Amino acid sequence: MATKTTRKIVKIDEAKCNGCGQCVPNCMEGAIQIIDGKARLVGDNLCDGLGNCLGTCPMDAITIEERPAEGFDEQAVQAKKQPIPVLQGCPGSMMRQLRTKAHPQAEKSPLEGATRSSQLSHWPVQLALVPVSGPIWQDADVLIAADCVAFALPDFHERLLAGKTLAIACPKLDDIQPYVEKLAAIFAGNDIRSITVAHMEVPCCSGIVYAVREALAQSGKDIPVADITVAIDGTIRSEA
Question: Which residues, other chains included, contact 195 with Cβ-Cβ below 8 Å and sequence gap of 6+?
Fold first, then answer.
């Protein structure tokens, strides 16, 4: 039986963890894996307790605690390592920046193949999955959009998205409070030039405006906010 000593080691709050997997590639020892949709410490002896994974968790689900644990085993780490780095979490949640292209003026019919170019500058875009810090937020014009806006507004990419950092959320189906807390952290910790909030005209969709304004108040920042209401017929109903 392995000897245990009281030492610093990673602690994961499964109630907060959303399974995004951003912590996995930052744990160079391979001590964290996504299992059953949650980040889990797979072996005390694989964790050195330094906490390189802490700053990559968008949900603040990872902390360092002191408790009796097996000692860190470098040989066990080397034996576990893959010859090629593998993302153990969901590959679709891996943060990446994209290179946008200029939008051609000419358009073809859908049968011929569209010539429009995506204006998306990064992935992922869901508010629960985007990091709270990083280059996508620095000196950025930010677009916070309700999920349905991109489907209703036919020129969403060209009219609203171009040149902006995007985060999407559903104010009707999602729990708004975690979004308020995350947006407050994003606004407080980064140099953001402007915020645009885009939502549908239906009353329940205005919750995303509340989330942004409440988060901005909590952040203590004075960032200009534009409020855009999109009608269900695909037109912009109002801009403020």
Answer: 141, 142, 143, 144, 187, 212, 216, 223, 224, 225, 226
